């Protein structure tokens, strides 16, 4: 091992998602100095060395045990299949806990996707901002209220403990760490070599599916049905309350109980979702989409879209339909 190389240790568990292991090795492994010297040493370890099953039809053979963590500069914990099962607060295998206890206090610790559950169970995220896959955020937040969960971002970096959202967000996280360590030029070169953008616009909010409570289960259901079929036109609170045969005050209270949002917040969310569908499935210009989804003008759509998803309509369409989609009116 070269003394001045930063040592990245990947701690894997049974049921590993192989792509996440490959991301760490590929990205850090490509980072080189101006003279071509490798800037990182990347190794893999597991609590019990030997054959480690993955969530696929092949296994990996890991020769190094937890002692590899003793001299780590960065530790990365990828997700494993067990993370997608119902979780319990503080659930962590004893051997994984013992392995993490060997990590030097000066080391940076990161997780990919639901590997964040391991960091939280080990107490490493207490009082910190963190994220995980959007499908697991509600469960994570309920189990670990002492962690500030941000469901919208691709990754977080809070005082040396980092987390990322889905599998591919591990790429964004590794590039962020490389950029932090060695600057944008090195990180951009790694991104080009991997054929990925050095920085993705927006966060994981643009990928989240937002299921709506079945209307038949809601006393405000008739009002929601009406709103969804009339999103293109102005909608007044009194009109919606009347559809539910309630006073405005009662309707407001019931709606918040059933949807967790005010009626107007819910309508904006539905209009953003309608605009998303039109951007993904049609070539309509933004002004037409704004009218069809009830925002009225392209300017209003862009403002609400950026607030909700962190990207412009044009960038969203490019992400989901390709660079050649859309036109100058976008």
What brief labels describe this structure?
6-stranded mixed β-sheet, alpha/beta, 330 residues, 41% helix
Q: What is the mean predicted local confidence, pLDDT?
A: 87
Count of individual beta strands: 10
Task: Report on the biggest sheet.
Answer: 6 strands, mixed
The structural class is alpha/beta
Determine the number of helices (DSSP H or I, runs of at least 4 residues).
Answer: 13
Low confidence ranges: none
Taking the alpha carbons of the first and last residues, their distance comes to 52 Å
Overall 3D shape: globular
Over all CA atoms, what is the radius of gyration? 23 Å
Q: How much helix, percentage-wise, in residues?
A: 40-55%
Approximate strand percentage: 5-15%
Q: How do the strands line up in the largest sheet? A: 2-1-5-6-10-9
- Order of helix and strand elements from N to C terminus: EHEEEEHEHEHEEEHHHHHHHHH
Fold and architecture overview:
- The protein has 330 residues and is an alpha/beta fold.
- It contains 13 helices and 10 strands.
- The chain has helices at residues 18-30, 94-100, 116-121, 137-143, 169-182, 184-194, 221-229, 237-243, 248-259, 263-281, 286-293, 298-309, 313-321; strands at 6-11, 40-45, 50-53, 59-62, 74-77, 108-111, 129-130, 148-149, 155-158, 161-164.
- 36% of the residues are buried.
List the helices and strands and how they pair.
Layout (H helix, E strand, L loop, with lengths): L5 E6 L6 H13 L9 E6 L4 E4 L5 E4 L11 E4 L16 H7 L7 E4 L4 H6 L7 E2 L6 H7 L4 E2 L5 E4 L2 E4 L4 H14 L1 H11 L26 H9 L7 H7 L4 H12 L3 H19 L4 H8 L4 H12 L3 H9 L9
Parallel strand pairs: 1-2, 1-5, 5-6, 6-10, 7-8
Antiparallel strand pairs: 3-4, 9-10
């Amino acid at each position: 091992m070269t003394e001045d190389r930063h040592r990245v240790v990947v701690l894997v568990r049974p049921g590993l998602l192989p792509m996440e292991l490959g991301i760490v090795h590929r990205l850090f492994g490509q980072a080189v100095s101006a003279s071509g010297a490798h800037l990182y040493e990347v190794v893999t370890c597991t609590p019990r060395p030997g054959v480690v099953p993955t969530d696929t039809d092949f296994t990996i053979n890991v020769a190094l045990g937890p002692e590899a963590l003793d001299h780590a500069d960065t530790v990365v914990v990828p997700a494993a299949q067990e993370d997608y099962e119902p979780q319990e607060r503080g659930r962590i295998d004893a051997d994984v806990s013992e392995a993490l206890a060997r990590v030097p206090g000066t080391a940076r610790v990161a997780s990919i996707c639901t590997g964040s559950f391991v960091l939280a169970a080990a107490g490493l995220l207490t009082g910190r901002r963190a994220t995980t896959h959007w499908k697991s955020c509600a469960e994570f937040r309920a189990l670990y209220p002492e962690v500030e969960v941000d469901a919208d971002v691709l990754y977080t970096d809070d005082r040396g403990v980092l987390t990322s959202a889905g599998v591919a967000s591990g790429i964004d996280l590794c590039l962020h760490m490389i950029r932090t360590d060695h600057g944008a030029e090195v990180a951009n070169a790694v991104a080009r070599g991997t054929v990925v953008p050095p920085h993705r616009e927006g966060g994981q909010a643009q990928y989240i599916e937002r299921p709506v409570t079945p209307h038949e289960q809601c006393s405000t259901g008739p009002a929601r049905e009406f709103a969804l079929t009339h999103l293109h036109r102005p909608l007044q609170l009194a009109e919606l309350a009347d559809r539910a045969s309630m006073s405005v005050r009662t309707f407001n209270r019931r709606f918040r109980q059933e949807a967790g949002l005010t009626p107007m917040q819910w309508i904006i969310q539905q209009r953003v979702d309608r605009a998303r569908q039109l951007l993904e499935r049609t070539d309509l210009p933004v002004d037409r989409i704004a009218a069809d989804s009830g925002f009225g003008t392209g300017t209003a759509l862009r403002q609400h879209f950026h607030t909700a998803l962190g990207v412009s309509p044009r960038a969203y369409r490019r992400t989901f339909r390709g660079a050649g989609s859309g036109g100058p009116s976008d």
